[in-house]
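ugh ok fine here u go
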Amino acid sequence: MFVRRPLSWMPLTVLRGAALAAMLGTAAVQAQPMGIPSMGAASSADLSPALERTLGDAIMEQGRRDPTYINDPDVNQYLTALGRKLVATAPGAHQPITVFAIRDPQINAFALPGGYIGIHSGLVASSKNESELASVIAHEIGHVLQRHVARGMTQQSQNSHIMIASVAGALLAALAGSGDLAMGVAAFGQAAAVDRQLGFSRQAEQEADRMGFDMLRKAGFDPNGMVEMFNQLSNASRLNEGTGGGSYASTHPLSIQRMSDIENRVRETPKVHHRDSDAYWYVRAKLRVLQARDSRAQRATLQSFKQEVADASGVAQSAAWYGQAYAAWLNKDFSGAQSALENAGKSGIIAPELSSLGVLLALDQGRPEPAYEQASKAWSRWPQNQGVALAMVEAMQKSGRYKEAVPFLTQRIEQWPDEPRFNQLLAQSHEKLGQPVQARRAMADYYVKVGALPTAVEQLTQARSMSKDFYVQSELDVQIRTIKQKLKADRELLERFKS
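structure:
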């Protein structure tokens, strides 16, 4: 069974500070904008797109273990789809984009090497419409496509070299096989602070604005969303001034020139009436619940949902009911969750997020057969939705349908090869069917995808000792050798960055 409850929370701002203190020691970090050097042969040689992606992959493999990382299928699938919809409109853009969320109420976002973009839950929660959210993601994609992060990390300054060496050192420690979660967390926190340390120049910020604006417009979003979000970020920055809040505007300074430039571009653009996707409202509601970690914040969030139920209509009202249902479900108030979920669907609105929660709620109420029937109908309707697929698997397992689960999971792994939970669930199904070799091979695939390569080797070694089949043993030998070679190559690459 996959873990559905949220992990314990640690503010990323605290994590960043700890990582910087641990990794950088007493080295000074420049506070003023450092700018971006001109693109040249040296920058490309130091951190080519391929090497940048490799470094980004290594960082994210550890980042997915971070307590603030939100490992939720609805959230990650929606944000990444939004990012890829935007980047698809950029001419000549071949950079793969992955957008993920972290649990932090501050209004912020950041780019990592290799096309990874992190969005604070507070940014999504504070957005008033999908165009506002898309404008920030588009801006961050602009930084990625212009290779501002990669170029900034390889510029000729002492702090830049310390920065990339620190990230590499933390990743090397995490790859050592000790299972030290703290080192992986430190690597992620250090990398997540990279854009803050770089302090992009005004020119770089304006480049990202203009590229983001074009993507926003071509993807069909309302370009005025960028102006609205700029104003909101500017107000948040003034409110947080002097508090060390690390708001988005402090890492991406909103100059009068930048504001005027975008406002002028909006005036020259025909008006756009963009309809927000249903997923935006449900994901926004879920993130508001997930970021409310103490009782005071939870009460305030529930109160805001109740106000929205009274004031809103349509999908926005349904999402407010969904937020209440999701919060009640997390707190194991199943009757309250059931009541709120029924209200969410009263207006005739149907959505995969509502169906998935309904399946999980039925399972927690001890009704596996109705849950399986509901999951089957939902999967027939939304065969591209990861949340529905995961709910379907849990319904299969809870109702004892492990034989059905194996081929279903095999197909989902082919459909979504980057999602490790399907491998983990496949391992559980094989174990229940008395197939220990297959179970360990599936778990090895899971550990490879989450970056725990030494643990993957252990799983395959166990599988080899359990098998008496010569051909299976040979296949396992090849897998073990391949992973060890990857581990060696990753270490050599990180040693290069470290030095």
